[in-house]
Structure formats: C-alpha cells, structure tokens
C-alpha cells in the first residue's frame, strides 16, 4: 500500500469513533480529507461538524455536512485529526497545513482526540519535522531569535498567511525531549499565537496506517 492508500485506510477506520447523532470535531490535511470523504457516506448518522480550517469547512460543506461554529457547541465527543509526527505517548507535532491554532481550539472542545496517520508519522522523539509556530508578524524576528538561543533555526513560511491572518515559522534543529514543558515555555513568548506541539492536547488514540493494516495505539 502506498501512503495515500494508508491515509484512506485510517480515514475510514476513524468512522468507528464517531458516535451516532454527534457533532464531530474535524481537523485539517490530506489524511483528514480522506476522513471527511468517508464521513460523507454516513452523513445521516451525525448532526454535523466543527471544523478547524477554511479548507476543511469547504470540503465538509461540499458533501452537504452541516458545519457548526465553535460558539454553538459546548463540548464535542471526539476530534479527529492528522499529525506531522506522533510519539509513543500521543504527543504530536502539528501545523504542516498551517491550521494549528484552530486545530488546538477545536481539540480543546473535545473529550477524545483520535489521531489518524500513516506509519511514517510515528517517531520516538519529536522534532525531526520542523516545528510550525503561528506568530503575529511583528514578533516573527524576535521569536526566531528566541529559537536560535535554544538551538533551533526558524524559517518564515514564505507566502503563507494563516486563516487567522498571521504567519508561520518552521523551526528545525529541536529535539523535543519534554514536549509538555517546551509547549508551555514557547506559548509564553510574546507574539506566539500557537506552537505546533500538541502535548496538553495529545492524542487519546492513534490509528496508524501500516502495510499490515490499522494499528491502534492508546
Ligand atoms: C495541519 C496539520 C495536519 O494534521 C498535518 O500537517 C498532517 O497533514 P497530512 O494529513 O496532510 O499529512 O496539522 O495543520
């Protein structure tokens, strides 16, 4: 199976985690697109979705799935999203698709985070994938210097403006040994809107697509 087939496999597998009559939290990315397309075949089973990006909203709506605003819901039973990296404790790097801030907001509403990913995303230590950080443009250089001081190299994602009108720095060279501590530290830097470490909002379950089938990690 190639990577696209593995993404489709876990996209379909995630349907088992969608309760009858639910409003579902929906992430962003190519793996989530597979989930959205699978969800469309069962759209009568759910009330609708809360989406983490303009792109996912458009895809959900193109399938006739109702998209609720975050203020219309108090809790979600489940949030389903992909990851750029996931470690053995469910901590993740996210934001390759620049949707990290809204992803964290919707994940925060959910009782359960189901991560769907192909096997290439599973790592022992986070940090090989450059860490996305959404920043207010005025703070970009200042935040980049802070990363340099802890051994990271921050590059502006040129030509990208997020759904929130901000910029993305991609930071390489970090070995994220303590994801919880690093997430908390970077979140305090002025001008950082969101760091793409998902440790406080780690995955409760990961459906990993492997050539042998779906491996469930929890
Ligand atoms: C978007 C994300 C995605 O979940 C992450 O980039 C994985 O994407 P894909 O499923 O396309 O590999 O965090 O901001």
TrEMBL record:
Record-listed E.C. numbers: 5.3.1.6
A GO molecular-function descriptor: ribose-5-phosphate isomerase activity
Residue positions binding substrate: 28-31, 81-84, 94-97, 121
Catalytic reaction equation(s): aldehydo-D-ribose 5-phosphate = D-ribulose 5-phosphate
Active site: 103 (proton acceptor)
Quaternary assembly: Homodimer.
Name under which the protein is recorded: Ribose-5-phosphate isomerase A
């Amino acid at each position: 199976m190639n990577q696209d087939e593995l993404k489709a496999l876990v996209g379909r597998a995630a349907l088992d985690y969608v309760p009858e009559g639910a409003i579902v939290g929906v992430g962003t990315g190519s793996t989530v697109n597979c989930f959205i397309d699978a969800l469309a075949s069962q759209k009568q089973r759910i009330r609708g979705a809360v989406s983490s990006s303009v792109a996912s909203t458009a895809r959900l709506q193109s399938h006739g799935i109702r998209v609720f605003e975050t203020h219309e819901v108090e809790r979600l039973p489940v949030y389903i999203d992909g990851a750029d990296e996931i470690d053995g404790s469910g901590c993740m790097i996210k934001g390759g698709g620049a949707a990290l801030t809204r992803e964290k907001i919707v994940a925060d509403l959910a009782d359960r985070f189901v991560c769907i990913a192909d096997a290439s995303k599973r790592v022992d230590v986070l940090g090989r994938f450059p860490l996305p950080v959404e920043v207010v443009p005025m703070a970009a250089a200042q935040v980049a210097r802070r990363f340099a001081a802890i051994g990271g190299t921050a590059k502006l994602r040129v030509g990208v403006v997020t759904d929130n009108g901000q910029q993305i720095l991609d930071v390489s060279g970090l070995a994220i040994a303590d994801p919880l501590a690093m997430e908390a530290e970077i979140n305090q830097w002025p001008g950082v809107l969101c760091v793409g470490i998902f440790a406080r909002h780690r995955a409760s379950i990961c459906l990993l697509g492997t050539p042998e089938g779906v491996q469930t990690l929890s």
